[in-house]
């Protein structure tokens, strides 16, 4: 395997200092200081032991921490104020060094990330007054946050409005990627493309989903990266986030693989492709695949600064409705079908989401990141799962991932059957029984003049997919 490398990846992990990392992190905290006057404290989180402390569950530092600290420290906090960064972390104990090897000390870590000052973790207690923070998912750190700040930490809590102010500032910064971020995101995308190519190529030689997953994640692991989310590698593509891998592959199956890498510093990719296990799409699979691909291509062609992401979602809905009318599955005028959410019977999720340090970037902030101030989720069947409803800006990275699924819980639902009885040709639909789920997903950077598809190297066209699989 030819292993890709990036400069940022190699340098951030050497003990030396990487001037571009230090400068990039400095710029981020200076920009934060322009948006928020309070001090900000961000915790990294800490390891959780499985059954004894040294048998650790996989650790992932908090993304807000990573954004300003740059590297995945654990049991650390940073205090950001007036554009300066103070690092709070303890030196490793001799016992930890015995079991896990030597690590840089506090001063060395501080130098690596360009900290203005460094302190032992215990010193943080005296520097928390008036600080804003963001709640961590891990309970132990969350309790520490509340205890040290001496207040509940929550975006919605009355007493914690400064946390909401911080969340809004973080969204402003993190939703438009800088060069430091883009370098990492491109690397995650490139490795993920290779993982998908490996998955397609191995399919003819294996008999289970698990083996394809192994080949795909093997590429990610061989680059010393991790998965940005639990891989979806399934012949049951109608289960949107299927995380089981035990099925045998059958010749007529479609394999849906939604697999993305995460760089060592936490930056994600998110790619989905769907391919025929046999190497050849059936004619019905081709028909539906072309509809989804049309939606994918039309949406990407419309992306540019200023465009409303919800309009992109509705465009995907319209293209899918049009395609399904042409195939005789839906009946009526496509615009009218979208207005009553008939497309959502087959495309029940949003067309995509923000991508960055997390695969659904900043969704720990609820809809503060995804939804423009003053907007909230629709309760419409066809819009409720839309995760992003903002005008696009250059520097944003979004996924475009239309799909078609035959979800039994939707298609057999008595209320839906009744509501959509006149617009679905249920008999015609039975002819497409070999299409359980198709999704095509790419990662698209909004630029000043349009877009750059970071995952464009991975084909989407039927003939190219067939040739890779065969
Ligand atoms: N990659 C999974 C998702 O976007 O939900
Ligand atoms: Mn996605």
Please supply descriptive tags for the structure shown above.
binds glycine, 470 residues, 12% strand, four-stranded mixed beta sheet, globular, Creatine Amidinohydrolase, Chain A, domain 1, Creatine Amidinohydrolase, alpha+beta, binds manganese (II) ion, 14 strands, three-stranded antiparallel beta sheet
Could you give a quick summary of the protein structure above?
The chain is of the alpha+beta class. Helices cover 37% and strands 12% of the residues.
What share of residues is helical?
25-40%
Structural class: alpha+beta
CATH class of the largest domain: Alpha Beta
Radius of gyration: 24 Å
User: Under CATH, the topology of the largest domain is which?
Assistant: Creatine Amidinohydrolase
- The CATH architecture term of the largest domain is Alpha-Beta Complex
Shape: globular
Quaternary arrangement of the chains shown? single chain
């Amino acid at each position: 395997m030819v292993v890709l490398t990036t400069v940022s990846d190699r340098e951030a992990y050497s003990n030396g200092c990487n001037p571009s990392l230090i400068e990039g992190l400095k710029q981020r905290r200076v920009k934060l200081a322009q948006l928020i006057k309070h001090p900000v404290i961000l915790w990294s989180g800490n390891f959780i032991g499985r059954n004894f402390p040294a048998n650790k569950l996989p650790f992932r530092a908090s993304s807000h921490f990573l954004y300003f600290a740059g590297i995945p420290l654990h049991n650390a906090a940073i205090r950001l104020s007036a554009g300066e960064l103070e690092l709070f972390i303890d030196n490793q104990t001799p016992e930890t060094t015995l079991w896990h090897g030597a690590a840089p000390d506090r001063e060395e870590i501080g130098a690596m990330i360009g900290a203005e000052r460094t302190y032992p973790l215990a010193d943080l207690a005296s520097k928390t007054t008036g600080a804003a923070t963001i709640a961590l998912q891990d309970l132990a750190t969350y309790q520490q946050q509340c205890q040290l700040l001496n207040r509940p930490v929550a975006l919605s809590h009355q007493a914690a409005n400064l946390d909401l102010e911080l969340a809004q500032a973080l969204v402003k910064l993190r939703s438009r990627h800088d060069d430091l971020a883009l370098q990492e995101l491109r690397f995650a995308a490139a490795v993920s493309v290779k993982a998908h190519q490996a998955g397609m190529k191995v399919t003819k030689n294996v008999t289970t989903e698990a083996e394809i997953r192994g080949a795909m994640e093997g590429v990610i692991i061989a680059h010393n990266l991790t998965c940005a989310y639990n891989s979806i590698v399934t012949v049951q593509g109608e289960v949107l986030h299927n995380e089981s891998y035990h099925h045998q592959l059958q010749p007529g199956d479609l394999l849906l693989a939604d697999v993305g890498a995460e760089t060592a510093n936490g930056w994600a990719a998110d790619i989905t492709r769907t391919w025929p296990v046999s190497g050849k799409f059936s004619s019905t699979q081709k028909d539906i695949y072309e509809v989804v691909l049309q939606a994918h291509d039309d949406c990407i062609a419309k992306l540019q600064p200023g465009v409303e992401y919800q309009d992109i979602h509705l465009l995907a809905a319209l293209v899918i409705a049009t395609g399904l009318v042409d195939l005789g599955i839906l009946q009526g005028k496509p615009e009218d079908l979208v207005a009553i959410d008939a497309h959502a019977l087959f495309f029940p999720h949003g067309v995509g989401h923000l991508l960055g340090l997390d695969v659904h970037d900043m969704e720990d902030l609820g809809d503060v990141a995804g939804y423009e101030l003053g907007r909230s989720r629709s309760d419409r069947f066809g819009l409720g799962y839309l995760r992003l409803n903002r005008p696009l800006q250059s520097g944003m990275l979004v996924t475009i991932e239309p799909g078609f699924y035959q979800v039994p819980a939707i298609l057999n639902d008595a209320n839906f059957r009744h509501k959509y009885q006149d617009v679905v040709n249920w008999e015609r639909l039975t002819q497409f029984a070999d299409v359980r789920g198709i999704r095509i997903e790419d990662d698209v950077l909004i630029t000043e003049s349009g877009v750059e598809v970071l995952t464009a190297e991975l084909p989407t066209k039927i003939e190219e997919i067939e040739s890779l699989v065969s």
